[in-house]
Amino acid sequence: MKEKSYKNKAAISEKLKTISKREADLFYSLCDKKPNVIKTKNFKNALLKSGLKINDNRLHNLFRKLDSSGDEIYFEDFKKIISSSELLVEKALRGELALPDFSDFSKSIDKMFDEVIKNKSGELASYIPPLAKVDPDQFGISIVTVDGQIYQKGDYNVDFSLQSMCKPFNYCFALEKLGLELVHKHVGKEPSGRQFNDLTLLTRSLVEKSQKKTTTIPFNPMVNAGAIMTACLINSDDSYKKRLNFVKEQYGKLIGWSAKSKFDSKFPRFNKNVAREENFTGHNNLAIGYLLMATGNLPGKKNKPKTNINTNKDEFDFYIEPSVTEALKLYFSTCSLEMTATEIATAASTLANNGVCPVTQNRILKQKTVRDCLPILQSSGMYDASGAFFQQVGLPAKSGVGGGVFLVVPQLMGICIFSPRLDEQGNSVRGIEMAKQITSKYLVHIFDGAMTNADRIDPKIPISRWRANSCGEAIWAASNGDIRTLERLASEQKDLSVGNADMRTPLHLAAAEGQLEVVKFLLKNGVKPVPDRWGGYGYFDAKNNNHKKILNELDKLNIKFSKPNHFVEDSEGKTDRIAKYDDELVVSELLFSAARNDTTRIRQLIAKGVPVHAGNFDSRTALHLAAAEGNLETVKLLINFNHPLNVRDRWKSTPLDEAKRENRTTVYKFLMKCKN
Question: Structurally, how many domains does the chain consist of?
């Protein structure tokens, strides 16, 4: 395509916006040195940094077009390339996927992984011979969000036996076929508080036809007795082969492959050897099968066979109940399916996404099915350690003696951790520890609610916005004299002394703007004066603006306030105006991003239409912060997006002044070059 020539970037931007503002913002956010063209590599990297993968089926056509588009892309070509997946591309470039700060999240999980891998405790599941032969040092984790972002580390692509991890999915398949009421005529909903293979059943009272009676059923679908019963309920009138194929096809749909892919290497694999050994060693499960038959709740035909009795010999035809063997055969088979951590995380994410597969966006399970499954998973998924696990981790989860454990974070993501060393309850030692670390770092516990603990992060919010939210509302309220907002924040136990990227606090801003009542309120609520970036206190903000009543209040503290080190360059030339933006917290987020050199987030904010030279309450812009911190990459990005050089803050300082005062030589030289 022939290159277009425009006078400057602003003109280009305006031209593009007349065509399509949304598409123009996305395109413009990826521009680098040339204002009317983007690098193919930069576009691809932006998508991959968001957590999407090249093998994502939703982006297949897009990546194919990118591979054939050459090194550079112009706007008209950009529109054609994204047409097949525009919504997904838009969410990725704007940082609006489930994990918007995917890069920081990944680094955090990496650190947890490197710590947990040191744990060598636990034993292999020796009672199933094939499981006793696996490498005990294997350790992998995969996280799949409801938007299809994927995090992987370690042995995430190693096949391992599902074992009890099949139970919640089999339960869902039964619910889909029969409905909640019919399924729970055969199996209960209560935690057992016993080992997973215990031979104890739940006795419950029934009222049928005005007559009271009792029946015995398994406690829940997550213990062996309940899982065997559930397996028996799945297409009970069909042959074993048809039933197994049905289950495999359903698993294939959960992980994003259709029934047509059943011979694909990525389709859930059935390990006949594991199933055979389970049959040879599963005496306890055989006993459970006959126990269920004795209760009269086991589905299937139980016709007494015709046998020939030879009266001349002391022998008879020994009979094994087929309904028991059929139930156990399917149960052993589903336990013996093998999947990778990424595949199981995808299936878990399907549960997190109310039954919609995140990588195909196809509905696999009814929303009601998922809603009915997750409470059972929450109360009984971790065997007799379920209560303690839920209190600490607070997420529906299921483990298996194959070494896997998956967690469901509703509306956000599925997590699968694989490590074959088990604790006394049969749960993966590293899996449990990793789960605890994740919930100690991130606000994903079901009962976290609206907690705003500064030490724990909401992964649905970018770090820069999280930091902006923790202080921004209070600072803006203080600068505007909004006592009611501050009272609400105080009642929510928010820290009213937290500073922004310049370490400016609500007390600084209230003093600077002459908000006497706010100053009194903050001091009454225990807020202590602290220095800002320049060593200055709110006292000097009040003094410079002649707010005498506030000075009197601060004098009562009997504190000797040090004088700030604000540097003001007496430079000549026109002063550029900062841009005003209605969303004050977004401006704070932009400044925090500039301070931490987060160019990815800055581009995302640009894609949303945020002006790069928007200023805060102190007239500080992203370029002021980037220059003060010596973040050359961010400085170059902002200049490339037409950030003016001569914007001045509250103290008349320009970004060039900031670089000079903080001795950021490289940034200073670059800005001087731009100025000249």
Answer: 4
* 611/666 same-domain check: yes
Measure the CA–CA gap between 580 and 573, rounded to whole angstroms: 22
Q: Name the β-bridge partners of 161.
A: 338
Distance, CA of 652 to chain centre: 42
Integer Cα distance of 246 and 315 in angstroms: 41
Q: Are 87 and 232 contained in the same domain?
A: no
Write the DSSP symbol of residue 614. Answer: B
Q: What span, in angstroms and rounded, lies between the C-alpha atoms of 321 and 296?
A: 13
- Based on the fold, state whether residues 591 and 531 are members of the same structural domain: no
Q: H helices within 234-321, ranges in order?
A: 240-254, 272-281, 283-295
CATH number at residue 609: 1.25.40.20
> Do 324 and 182 belong to one domain?
yes
DSSP character for 446? Answer: T
Q: Is there a single domain that holds both residue 212 and residue 273?
A: yes
What is the per-residue DSSP string for 555-589?
HTT---PPPP--------SPPBPPBP-S-HHHHHH
CATH assignment of the domain containing 244:
3.40.710.10
The Cα 202–Cα 220 span in angstroms is 9
Tens digit of pLDDT for each residue in 35-67? 789 999 999 999 999 999 998 888 989 999 999
Contact between 623 and 614 (Cβ < 8 Å): no
Give φ, ψ of 171 to 5 degrees.
-60, -45
What is the per-residue pLDDT across 485-498, written as a single tens digit (0 to 9) for each?
A: 999 999 888 889 98
DSSP label of 524: H
- Please enumerate in sequence order all residues whose Cβ is within 8 A of that of 132, keeping only pairs 6 or more positions apart, or say none: 124, 125, 126
| Averaged pLDDT of the chain | 86
Percent of the chain predicted with pLDDT > 70: 86
C-beta of residue 587 within 8 angstroms of C-beta of residue 618: no
| Domain contains 17 | yes
The pTM of this model reads: 0.86
What pLDDT, on a 0 to 100 scale, did the predictor assign at position 152? 97
Q: What are the strands, taking DSSP E only, across 162-311?
A: 202-208, 211-217, 269-270
CB atoms inside a 10 Å sphere around CB 421: 21
For residue 449, tell me if it sits in a domain.
Answer: no
Instruction: Check if the beta carbon of residue 397 is closer than 8 Å to that of residue 164.
Output: no
Structure-token match 């990826």, residue found: 30
Residue 293 in tokens: 């038959």
Region for residue 140 given its phi and psi (left: phi exceeds 0; alpha: psi -120 to 50; beta: otherwise): beta
Closest residue by Cα to residue 594 from 610, 572, 575: 610
Q: Which domain holds residue 591?
A: 584-675
Strand partners, 141: 153, 417
Both tokens assigned to 427: 């749960």
242 contacts: CB under 8 Å, gap ≥ 6: 235
- Asked whether residue 137 is assigned to any structural domain, the reply reads no
452 close to 579: Cβ distance less than 8 angstroms: no
Q: What are the E-state strand segments in 352-403?
A: 397-399
Q: Identify the three-state secondary structure at position 148.
A: coil
Query: What one-character DSSP code corresponds to residue 185?
Result: T
Residue 382 and residue 288 share a domain: yes
